[in-house]
What does this fold into?
Amino acid sequence: MILIRILLCILAPTRLGAVTTNQEFFRIMSQRFLNRKTFTLGSIGAAALAATLAAPSVLAQQKVLNIYSARHYQTDQALYDAFAKANNVKINRVDTDDAGVLQRLKAEGSASPADVVLLVDASRLAKADADGLFAPIKSPVLEKAIPAQYRDASTANGTTWYGFSTRARVIVYNKAKVKPADVDSYEKLASAANKGKVCTRSGSHPYNLSLFSTMVEHIGADKTQAVLQGMVGNMARAPKGGDTDQIKAVASGECGVALTNSYYLARMMRSSNPADRAVVEKVGVVFPNQSSWGTHMNIAGGAVAKHSKNKDLAQKFLEYLASPQAQRYFADGNNEWPVANGVQIDNAALKAMTGGKAFKSETIPVSVVGKNQVKVQQMLDRVGYK
It folds into this structure.
């Protein structure tokens, strides 16, 4: 800075040495150049330098929001761009998987720059909350927009995490080999009719942990363990792969029936890839337990990081995620259902999946997932569900 001022004093020396502040210095310089009828090369260069040095004071006014996200969906970029533009905010993102987000937050401790944490699945949100990685907030906007079943239980200090989109844990079946009536509930995956037909990803994966944890609330621990035991006995192969792999395995005939999150199937339904379209043609989908407690719904959600240095802006971002605009981004971009009350969507794949009709979903709070996770994992170990 000193060198720059010396240079400018050489180019336009009159009384500039007496100026004591950078702001006054640049004001005088700007006026001087504007009053001149002609510009020398030196004055142009000096003006450019002055503008460059003045720029940081403008940039300093732009707020910065640091987001640690396990949402690995490219379509989410529109979410961030819209908020950044509307609020003059620069968003820095750390994108990794859920385990990576939690590990980094723990390693950084109180020095963490994270303001917002976005995770996928209630089991992961519950674990992060139990590990003390979130800061409770009090937001009338979120309390009004997000149904109680899709957020953590409120305390005197506030609420720690909120769901912002939902996905159904559905059953897909091979239309040539399996009757829909044989797989219209989660419990029927353990029935004799499905011997040698069942495929899933690991039982310990958070998507399955969440389903089985809520099942404990619906039918009790003993019956849940019996279902898990029956599923293990009905496996077509050992659990492996992700949800898309299960759909493809059902279409190929390797499996007769499988569990998947709804957005994986919707993604294939919207795909222009002929191979994906061929898979979709061979599988049917069931929203389980319509005659009992309803289909299991899981969430993707977020929270304010415990050590955020910018908690007000972080809360504002979470409130934005509950807005109709952001909720439609979730639906259109990643084939998820909105969580916020009263938001209407127009996603052709989701409509086709449900036949354009409403389906019965469970109403149990997703926060119960956290309290049942350890119990369910012990069940999985006992029955050999890897």
